[in-house]
């Protein structure tokens, strides 16, 4: 293997690692936004009817499915 081949492999690994890190960050941000949206909806419902909110936080799987559907 030449030095150029090693550099290409290292660069490819770095790009792959950066892509995985970006996906993790985007997933966390999406989860945080969905939780915040539910909090806002609960607050509005409590103002309207004065009863405690009974909305449940979506599971991680549900949040991923909703995010996938929104992207399509």
Put the structure in a nutshell.
The chain is mainly α and 72 residues long. It is built from two helices and no strands.
Tally of helical segments: 2
Number of strands: 0
Largest sheet geometry: none
- The amount of beta strand, in percent, is under 5%
Q: Low-confidence segments, ≥5 residues, pLDDT <50?
A: none
Provide the structure class.
mainly alpha
N-to-C terminal Cα separation, in Å?
A: 43 Å
Pattern of helices and strands: HH
* CA gyration radius, whole angstroms: 20 Å
Provide the helix percentage. Answer: over 70%
Assembly level = single chain
Mean pLDDT: 84
Gross morphology:
rod-shaped
Structural commentary:
The protein is mainly alpha-helical and 72 residues long. The chain has a domain at 23-71. Helix content is 82%, strand content 0%. The chain is built from two helices and no strands. It has helices at residues 3-49, 60-71. The longest helix has 47 residues, at 3-49. The radius of gyration is 20 Å and the shape is rod-shaped. The termini are far apart. The mean pLDDT is 84.
Write the layout of secondary structure elements.
Blueprint: H1 3-49, H2 60-71
Helix pairs in contact: 1-2
Notable features of this structure?
mainly alpha; 2 helices; 72 residues; single chain
């Amino acid at each position: 293997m030449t030095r150029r081949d090693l550099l290409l492999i290292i660069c490819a690994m770095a790009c792959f690692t950066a892509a995985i890190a970006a996906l993790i960050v985007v997933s966390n941000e999406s989860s945080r936004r969905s939780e915040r949206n539910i909090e806002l909806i609960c607050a509005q419902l409590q103002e309207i009817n004065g009863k405690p909110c009974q909305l449940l936080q979506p599971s991680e799987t549900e949040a991923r499915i909703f995010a996938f559907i929104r992207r399509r």
